[in-house]
Amino acid sequence: MKPLDSIQKEFKQFFAEGICKSFGGLKAVDNFSMELDTGEIVGLIGPNGAGKTTVFNLITGMETPDYGKFYFQRNFITGMAPHDISELGIARTFQNIRLLDYLSVIDNIKIAYHKHISYNLLHASLRFPKFHSVEREITGKSFEFLELFGLEDSAYELASSLPYGKRRKLELARALATEASLLLLDEPAAGLNPRETTELTELIRKLRNDFHVSILLIEHDMSLVMNLCERVIVLNFGKIIAQGSPSEVKNNQDVIEAYLGTGKKKNVS
Amino acid sequence: MSWYEFHSVLGSIGILAILALSLNVICGMTGLLQLGQAGFFAIGAYAAGLSSIYLTFPELGMLNFVISASVAMIAAGIFSIILGIPCLRLKGDYLAIVTLGFGEIVRLILINLNFSGGKMYPGEKIGGATGIKFTEFPGDIWPKYPDYSAEFAKWWFIWILVAVIFILLINIKRSSFGRAMMCIREDEIAAQAMGINLSKYKLMAFLLSAVIAGFAGALFFHKELAVTPGKFNLLCSIEILLMIVLGGLGSFSGAICGAIILGMTPYLLRHVEVFGYRIGEHQQLIYALLLIVLIRLSPNGIFGMNEVPAWLKIFFKGKKQIPKNETA
To answer: Which of A50, A211, B98, B217 is the most buried (most CB within 10 A)?
Structure first.
């Protein structure tokens, strides 16, 4: 029998076990299991309506699974409130960008430092020295992130005034600024042109190397998935139909059928 | 308009401004529609009235106001927590309906309330439709100025308090707490994903808002030295909401501006004559017309969401702070 220590070392950073979720009669996610190592980039692909975004909602606690367990860094996170899960270090971006439109760009990043605030309401309302020192630190860190993403020039503009590509970047910066160790990116390349997609691919790879985060991403842009991901999981109707390296998945018969159909005409009686 | 009336009106507007500031915390900053602010206002006023009956020490003078205002704030705070814990799980219109009900319930309870009088009028009943009434407050709370009327002393005192509350709220708005509340206004799902505890911050905003409204109630009681339940009707809540909508939801300076405009209009119109015809009789009509025109010209209110409106920003140009990196 192995000592407890070595068993815990074998624990992956994140794993899901037998997750099921149904909405009424529709099984959105059916027996979904996966695991993720620190620093891995894993793609989650599948046709529309396959339940990819539901998986993200389940991981981040926006919805609770009917069955199954999630573990993150040896914590059992199933059924925890979204803000508690976020505090443990899981951050996500959204398919339809959810920025705080009427706040400035820098404030959008500062929101992410929310859990590190050590002053209270009294310190804030009376402007104690502690408030200023904490705020200065946060502003400095936020500017570092803005510089990394090339947004420092528009720091004091409203988030709603940014062009689409920059909004995507800002959301990514915000997710990263929560000091998360697992990033869930929901279609980061949606609506970007090929040049921007290439840029984004480089950026995500750079983030992984610099911040040692693991990344789980949903994407329809196959060039990004094939370039970036070390492992791909394919979902169809809530079930995992294939997983493996991008090249393996590309040649998998089930995957081709899921995306393109069987090629045979159905016999309609 | 006589000087006495003018001073009295300025004082009333100051109290309305505090109410508008308080409602702006919950409606403007956190984005929860609250239609029961008059309820907390009433609780504050009644708590201040009762505490001046039972908890007044004539030798303390000005400090009596501090006691009475703290009682009002604590009472409003307790009620806001009782209402907030179950109700803040509701969203949008549902919350508005519940708070609207709360405001009406408070008013109806106050009308039907009857408790025996304390030190002031032995034997007489307090409560009911006549409310609480004093002819003279025993603790001499308003600073006395020999050359001016008592109303003058009241209004500058009230406006100093407006300024203090304004500064405190602006400080909160520009801190992590304000950002969290505004984040909830912009997008609740994104706020959750950023690790913001929704119920905690909603309750915090609700409590802050109720406490300030309770404080306004205490000021109202000590200004009028009388309080009747009839004032705290739905129209009162709606009027406060109109002020912050007019000034710009989310802007505290806009809330004060809206309170001044909407508070001043009826008094100004009362004295306007056109061809010998007093248009003050059709005050409500003009009031409504004014609102329609203002909302049509700038749908986000006069100030929008900023503390300094966009059309004034040209004077504040070129002051963009680039922070030094002090993370190391």
So the answer is: B217
- Partners of residue B177 in chain A, C-beta under 8 Å: 121, 124
Q: Which of A86, A94, A124 sits opposite B171 (nearest CB)?
A: A124
Q: Give the one of A83, A103, A135 whose C-beta lies nearest to B197's C-beta.
A: A83
Q: Locate tokens 């000005």: which residue?
A: B62
Which of the pair, A42 or B269, is modelled with greater confidence?
A: A42
State ipTM: 0.88
pTM, two decimals, is: 0.88
Residue type, B109: I
Name the 3-class secondary structure at B278. strand
Mean pLDDT score across all residues of chain B? 83
Residues of B whose CB is below 8 A from A157: none
What radius of gyration do chain B's Cα atoms show?
Answer: 21
CATH class of the domain defined by A11-89+180-262:
alpha beta
Residues B1-23: pLDDT tens digits?
A: 677 788 888 999 999 999 999 99
A42's tokens? 């894993």
Domain ranges of chain A: 11-89+180-262, 98-179
Beta strands in chain B (DSSP E): 114-116, 125-127, 132-133, 226-227, 273-274, 277-278
